[in-house]
Every structure is written in C-alpha cells, then in structure tokens.
Amino acid sequence: MTHSNLIQRESYRASSLSSPLLASFSFFSLCAITSFAAFPALAEESVEKQTLDPVVVTAAPMSDPLTVVTDAKAPRQPVPAHDGADYLKTIPGFSVIRKGGADGDPVLRGMAGSRLNILADGEMIHGGCGGRMDPPTAYIYPGSYDRITVLKGPQSVVWGPASAGTVLFERDFKPYTTPDYRIYSSLMFGSFERNDQILDAEAGNSGFYARMIGTRSSMRDYKDGNGKRVHSNYTRWSGSATFGVTPDENTRLELSASKSDGEAAYADRMMDGSKFARENLNLRFEKKRISSVIDKIEAQVYYNYIDHVMDNYSLRRAGMTKNVNNPDRRTTGFRLTGDFNLADTTFLKAGLDQQSNRHRIRSGSDQDYRSKGRVADASFGNHGIFSELTHSFTAEDRLVAGLRVDFWKAKDQRSGFSTSGQTRRNTLPSGFARYERDFGAEGNSSTFLIGLGHSERFPDFWEAISQNKQSESSDSAFKTRAEKNTQLDIGTIYQINPKLQLSVSAFYSRMRDYILIDNSRTLKAASLVRNISATTYGGELGLAYAFSQNWRSGVSLAYVRGNNNTDHTPLAQMPPLDSRFTLDYDNGTWSVGALLRLVAAQRRFDKDKGNIAGQDIGSKTSGFGVFSLNAGYRLRKDLRLTAGIDNLFNKTYAEAISKSGSMIPGYDQTTRINEPGRNFWLKLDLKI
C-alpha cells in the first residue's frame, strides 16, 4: 500500500470516530443555514438585535491595557486550526510552538506550559501526554465558546497563580423572559481538504433553558511554500449539552456535560495521537442580589477525564514493531466565590478553589496494551484562598489589589527513583497591587495603569515527573523548587482623537528559581531540570486609525527579550519581534481586508534549553513576511459569507520556536516544522 493510500485510509478511519450523528454533522449544519436563508420572514423576525459582528478578525484589540476580549466565533485570518492555541495566535503577544497541523503549545510573552493559566468555563484541564502532545488547548474548541478573555501578567488572583497571564474560554448566559431560541451555525471549507462544522442551538423560557453544541473539524496534510507535505492531518469532534433552571431572575442552577475525541498526526516525533477522548461534567450555581452587601455568590463543581492514546502506526507507515502509550488523567475541582459591595466605592471578590488530578500510564503493543492495567505515577492537589479588592478614590482613580495563598501537595508514585513514594507540600503566596486612572472627555476617554505583581508556581507534572526528568543532584526532579516571578506591568489605552487610538502594554519580570528544561547534558536519555535566575521584558503596541466611516487600518507590535542570568546566556524559547499591519473596508454589506505579518530574525538562542513544550534548536532564524487577503458579504442581516487567502505569495517559513522536524517515512525532514503555504478558505456563518 502506498503512503498516500495509507493516509487516505486513515482519514476515512478518523472520520468514523465522530459517530453517525457527528459524521453527518455537515449535512445538519447546512440544513440549519439553508433553512433560514430560504425563509426570510422567519429569519428576520427572529434576529432582533443578534447580528453577526462585522468583517473578519485579524488582531484582537485591548479592552483595557492588560486585557484582551475577543469573539470566539468570529472568522479569523490566518484561519486557525480547530484548537485553542491557534486562536490565541491571532492575538498580539501570543506565539505557538508548532508540532503538526493542530495541538500546538501556546506561548504568551515567551512563557509556555503552566506559566499560562488556561481555563474552559472556569475548569482546569490537564493533558495526559508526557511529551505535551495534548496541552490543555488541545481539548478546547473555540467555536463552541462565546468569548476568549486574556489577562496579561500576574495582575489577578481569582483564577489561580499566574506567571505570564490567564486565558479564559467562556460561555455567556443570557436569561430568557419569554419563550425564545438562539442558533449559531457555521461551515468552513479550505485548502488541504479543511472541513469544519459548528452547530450551537439554545432555547428557553423564564424558568428553564437548554443548549446543545456540536463541532467537527478535519484536515489532510498541509503543504509548505515549497509544496512539500507536512505530517499534519487531524480529525476532531466535540459535543456538549447544558440544562439550566432559573426559578427567578436572580437564581440559576446549571448542569452541563461534554464529550470529545479525535486524532492528530505530528511532524516532530515518532508517534501520533490516535485518541484524544475527554469526558466532562460541570455543575454550577449562581445567586445574585442577595442583599445590599452580598451582590453575588457562585459555586461550581467539575469533573474532567482524559484518555489519550499515542502510537507509531495509526497515522503513519508502521515500522517493525507497533508501540503504544496510553496515559489517562482525572481532574476534579470546585470553586466558590462571592462578590461584595463593602461601600459605594469599594468592591471585594473573594473565594476559594480546589483541584486535584491523578495521572496514570500503560504501554505495550497494538495487541496487548488494552489488557494491561494502568499504573499511577503522580498525583497533584491544590487548595487556594483568594481575595481581590477594588477601591475607587474618585470617579477616575481606583486601586485594585489582590492576595492569594495556595496549599500544594504532590506525590511521586513511580517506582525505582530516589523520590519514589515521597510526598511534598508547599504553601505559596501570590499578590498584586495596581493603580488605574481614566482621563479624557466623555466619548474620548483613555485609561492608564501601573501594577506590581508576584506569583509563585508549583512545578507541574511535566517538570517534576514525566519522561523521568532529573535534577542536577538526583535521578529525580520531583523536588524542584517552586518558581517565583515578580513583575511590573504598565499600560495605557489613549484615544488620541475620535479616529485614532493607541494602546500600549509593557512589562519587566524578575524570576527566581525559573524552571529550565536543559537537554544540553547527557543524562541517560533524560532531561535535566534546573532552577535558574531569569529576566524578561517587553510588551505590545497597537495603533488603530479610522480613515472614514468604512475604512480603517491597524498596526500591532509584540516584543519580548529574555536573559538566563545564571548561565549568562539568552533565555531559551523567546519569539522574535512580531508585527502586523491591517487594512479593512466594511460598508455593512461588503467587506475586504488585508493582513501583512512581518517577523524579525531571531539570533538569540540557547541550544537544547527551553521549557516543557520545546527547546531551542541551536540555529538562528531568518525573518519573514506573510501577506493575506480576506473578503466578506452579508447575504442577510444574520447570514455572512467570508473568504480568504492566507500566505498569498506561498512563502516558505517556520516560526523561531517551532519544533524540529522528525524523520518520518514518506516526508521530507526539515530543521523546523514549516508553516502552511498558500491556503484558501471559505466560511458561512448564521446567527439567529
């Protein structure tokens, strides 16, 4: 059997993963769109104020100097993969460590892994793969959420200790006063047989509501600018159901359940992911306007289970032996928060959260691994207590400050190591204080802020346990010290005039006991984990200008620089200067847009050192420029067609922090995994 036939066979096998319902999902989505397009009167009557946002999103602006809020359902350019990391890449300050067509690791300001908090509807998700085949964003389908919120820096304690920042994938709740419904449906087709479908349907009345969401995405191997295929095909699907009761306008009880699965090929390693199964349950309670002091109480309990399979034969030409690794991970947690109006000028948000997770592994061959019992190798748990206070001195001046304490516990459940059977506990504080000031006239307002934050991060599974990590003095990295980050953040959104807006955010960070993954030394094929001293600094700049009512342009810059103060070398895995220039026209019916992305060369690197997601390859990278175009047509008030060409000139390039290419039969090995070449896409959105 030829390699192309093998891929075709595996693609058909992947599509069968999605069950009869989701395998025909494209048909049902198309029916939903065409049905409402065919009955204009019915569609117009149901639209009310729910209309599609204008034009394609090319770069999300700041809503305040350290916060970015963006529509998770809006079409984007370059068109992202199905997962959360690729969506974040469209936000200035983010990069992605590419491994294949999907499931890259997101990087914010040069920080990856658990330095970046990622929550899906308030839940923590932990991947199972010891080699980061499945970061948390691999299980997040952005089109099934309503909003993505990015909080930069250690400037909040509500969502856990955050070194680099926090990303929230959120679903909105909009109460019903009378029986009604809402529908969002989307179809997308593109080069490399890209095929995505989303159906999000909700209905309710004043006392009850239900929401059903289904997504499916697939793509064959993409080609780089030289026309060379990259081992990158994937198929993923997800489904969720939410039921809620609202006995009165201030009370809500909600139960949701979700399930997802899929498979993905990887160009950076000798195995692929043939199973990404996730099961989830979430129970949430909310009570508002309890008294003049207690504004709101929220409680949440959740359960996540991930069953991940990786092998060397399902999505590639099989070798002499068929090897399988099958980790799983169970995470449970809860949150309890309260909003309190302590005075007319003082607001307090306080609460506690808890999460615990257990990791197990089994391995073998295609024939016997299912019959083997899973063996636990680690467990982690954390209880956190936090409070965040906002005090307004005047209508324009306010102070925001927060404190948090986390009580960590971890157990090494492996055998054969010096720390086997040992338990460690740490109590780690975090906190921040930030001054904010609004200035300018009404309709032309601006904001300035400056904040100092401190965060202490417990070593995660990939730093302390996975792949037999070692320390400088032991055969185990289990006792690696917690990482401490003290960071100064400053930023402003300045409305220069009604047509011109400037947004700037900058930071300076000093890290003690920064956890470095060092593969520069030979340690019996295991990585060395070291605590070092490090410094990073940089920021983001955005400029938006409206030429007229229909024409607007934008510029964004993102820069970060890091130093390893212990080794007197550059800090590894730092992306270079990244800039984007956009020009858009939208008259309410037609829209066109252009995006030029320019990335500088990266000459600062530290070979074989980095983080849990990747290490520097050891060669400088050239700068590159990529030009893309998009256009849109609003067929109706609630129906939009958008299309685009990414990488118009078919540029061959790779990101500086991309993983190195592996030797895979039937594919050309590259120093770094190249990005997709010219890519056409077409997307149809319906929102009722």
What does this structure look like?
- With 688 residues, this protein is mainly β.
- It is built from six helices and 34 strands.
- It has a 22-stranded antiparallel barrel. A six-stranded mixed sheet has the order 1-2-7-8-5-6, with no helix packed on it. Strands 3-4 form a two-stranded antiparallel sheet.
- It is globular and about 65 Å long.
- The longest helix is centred in the first third of the chain and has 14 residues, at 25-38.
- It starts with a helix and ends with a strand.
- Strand 17 and strand 18 form a beta hairpin.
Helix content: under 10%
Provide the β-strand percentage band. Answer: over 45%
Major sheet summary line: 22 strands, antiparallel, barrel
> Any low-confidence stretches, pLDDT <50, length ≥5?
1-50
SS class: mainly beta
Q: Count all strands and give the number.
A: 34
How far apart are the termini?
48 Å
Shape: globular
Radius of gyration (CA) equals 25 Å
H/I helix tally? 6
Average per-residue pLDDT, rounded, comes to 90
